[in-house]
Amino acid sequence: MKAARAVHVIGAGGHAKVVVATIRAAGLDVECAWDDDPRRRGGAVLGAPVRGSVDDVPAGVPIVVAIGSNVVRRDVVARLGAREFCTVAHPSAVVHPSATLGPGTVVFAGAVVQPDARLGAHVIVNTAASVDHDCLVEDFVFRENGPLKNLFDGMWFFQADQYAPLADTELMAAMLDFFLALGGDGEPG
Fold it and tell me: pTM score > 0.70 for this model?
């Protein structure tokens, strides 16, 4: 998929480097990056110039939000409002044709998204991570290649018939205890 216009990347930190590399590997061009940190302006992310703050991003341009924090990514997307958010998968990622990827989702190199997996908006599937068949990954989840990453930002990642929001510390602690009790083989004890 070759974009008619170059992609604008929101964020200019370390995560943005991998996003820029993924966009280019997917055959798309990167116009520039935008970041609220004034110290990053005038710099570059893998050669893509950092132009200004998120509030300066022009309307009508394709965007990928390259911010690793689920909460900050969600807040920045809310600030941007209705935009053209690009979905990008690295060519070395394996994404089954029956899987669905929401707007703004990025799938990094070596990742695997299995049949009928459903990924929401602005999901990150990290390098070499996987999402198994029939899983639902809600909006703004960062899918790491370890099973518990998403519990700590209050986001969701479970089988579609088992997911629940993680809203408070007690619930997160109970879920962590449950997963640790499984012993890594899916069976209690």
Answer: yes
